[in-house]
Amino acid sequence: MSVVLEAIETKKRGGTLAEETVRAVVAGFTEGSVPDYQMSALLMAIFIRGMTYEETLALTRAMAQSGEAYAFPDCVDKHSTGGVGDKVSLTSLPIVAACGAPVAKLSGRGLGTTGGTIDKLESIPGLSVTLSEERLRQQVEEVGLAIVEAGDLAPADKAIYALRDTTGTVDSLPLIGSSIVSKKAATGAGHLLYDVKRGSGAFMKTPDEARGLARLLVRLSESMNIRASALITNMDTPLGAAVGNALEVRESVRFLKGDPVPEDLAHEACLVAAKLLELRGEKAPLDAVEKALSSGAAYEKLERFVRAQGAGPDALESLPISGTVREIPAPRDGYVTGFAALGVGRAALALGAGRTKKTDEIDPAAGVELLAKPGDRVEAGDPVARLHGEREVDQAGRLILQAIEIGDEPPAPAPAILDDL
Ligand code: URA
After folding, report:
1. Which residues contact 349 (CB under 8 A, 6 or more apart)?
2. 100 - beta bridge partners?
3. Residue 193: which H helix or E strand, with range?
4. What are the pLDDT tens digits along the chain (421 aa)?
């Protein structure tokens, strides 16, 4: 019997796979000797039977070592499980770098309602997200901050994820955990914070799912010699006010310059930065964060970083934000009790800020600005959102009206940080 058929038989009956078996199957699938139909059968057996921690770690290791890998043991990195208006990398990493913790980040593009840091960065005129390994290392040394597009790291994960996407096997905790940590391990940062989003606009809908994933990510990372911790953060409503690529960069610039931004964004950016500094042994991380912001050092770090990656000197002041604008009025008087992240994300997608398929062209200038957040009092007719862009504006407007909830009483305040592991 072939090793993959044996693995399918074992998992089908609820048995446990040995590390060598996992390694052989992953290697065989990556090089093409294990066909898609057998790998799909194995993934479905794993989906149904689950995996022990040791099996999950074996899968993580095998995928992490399936291609090129970097080593940045001194650096910090963060990973978000994805959300709407999630600009925490753009806001927290310049702070961390300004505090002396180097950042080498390999990032991805957005898909569906989930934005991607690479798309946001590409909305900055002139900025390049591809650097050779040598340039990446040099920039980390000289500037202390580099963010580039993840290339061919963990190719086994890429191939397995594509199969999971078409075989109903994405939403399996051991498969998600090993997929995320294999890529992070191949990126090579020695200190890692996971931002696990929970809520309507997130992959994880319930507190138990989010906590289970956060614990698994931290445990797998530590087994791979990465110092890790995790936050569970609220994604029932978008983070901050801006959703869309250039709009989110503009909001990040405002935050780092000390201009007012919604409290949820400011709080989360500072806490993520502090947790990253803590992982590197900083004794008073919140004080360091406060100093980096109030001195202007964090904003200067952002400017140096975007210039090092090819942007012109005034790129952050000349972001391509669409001037084709429509404001959406509140349908009634009352308090905003909810502004569903998923609905706002869909509106931004309709305007062209994101892609439904990997090959779609996005409009970096498009997106949504929320003019009211949960807890705010509005009168009928007050603008609650501003749409930027030219594609499917009517549909986006309808989605915003479905996403907003207005009631007679103010809602209980919803914390931005739900758990800290
Ligand atoms: N993100 C990943 O990188 N992998 C998964 O399996 C799910 C989300």
Report:
1. 112, 113, 355, 356
2. none
3. strand 189-198
4. 899 999 999 999 999 999 999 999 999 999 999 999 999 999 999 999 999 999 999 999 999 999 989 999 999 999 999 899 999 999 999 999 999 999 999 888 877 888 789 999 999 999 999 999 899 999 999 999 999 998 778 999 989 988 998 899 988 999 999 999 999 999 999 999 999 999 988 888 888 999 999 999 999 999 999 999 999 999 999 999 999 999 999 999 999 999 999 999 999 999 999 999 999 999 999 999 999 999 999 999 999 999 999 999 899 999 999 999 999 999 999 999 999 999 999 999 999 999 888 788 999 999 999 999 999 999 999 999 999 999 999 999 999 999 999 999 999 988 888 988 8
The verdict on 213 and 270 lying in the same domain is: yes
Helix (H) or strand (E) holding 180, with range, is helix 173-187
Domain extent at residue 341: 325-407
Let me know if residue 94 belongs to a domain. yes
Annotated active-site residue in 11, 23, 79, 388: 79
Nearest CA to ligand 1 atom 6: 176
Tell me which residue has tokens 């809520």. Answer: 199
Please give the model's pTM, rounded to 2 decimal places. Answer: 0.93
Q: Cα 264 to the chain's mean position, in Å?
A: 16
The answer to whether 179 is a known catalytic residue is yes
Mutate to test the pocket of ligand 1, among 179, 195, 204, 213 (most ligand atoms within 8 A of CB): 179
**DSSP 3-state assignment of 222?**
helix
Q: Are residues 131 and 268 in the same domain?
A: yes
Q: Residues 120, 183, 198, 254: which is the catalytic one?
A: 183
Point out the catalytic residue in the list 179, 200, 229, 322: 179
Q: Is the dihedral of CA 25, 29, 32, 37 positive or negative?
A: positive
CATH of the domain at 227: 3.40.1030.10
Do residue 36 and residue 87 come from a single domain?
no
377 lies in the same domain as 250: no
Q: Is 79 a catalytic residue?
A: yes
